[in-house]
Design a protein that fits this description.
alpha+beta, 2 helices, 33% strand, globular
Length: 86
């Protein structure tokens, strides 16, 4: 399974927390679906941290302010809640 390097950021927009995954590097082409992932909404930070643990990205007591750099495959992206045809 292909693995790609992502920068994950948790942002507060309105009343919700949104997890953004930005592809780092130029492994797939510029129009590849991994470059256009829709953010995932979480009710609170604890829910987002549980999703990271379930996807085996790592375990944190709070989300780092500078984000998380992680190597993810399709299964881990889906476990985090990202959807799409990738």
């Amino acid at each position: 399974m292909d693995q790609h390097f992502f920068h994950l950021q948790l942002r507060m927009l309105g009343m919700g927390l949104w997890l953004y995954a930005e592809l780092i590097g130029d492994s797939p082409g510029p129009d590849h679906a991994l470059r256009h992932l829709r953010p995932v909404r979480f009710r609170n930070e604890a829910e987002a941290l549980r999703a990271l643990t379930a996807a085996e990205v790592g375990t944190w007591s709070s989300f780092p302010h500078d984000g998380i750099h992680a190597t993810l495959n399709r299964t881990k992206l889906r476990t985090l809640g990202f959807r799409g045809n990738f």
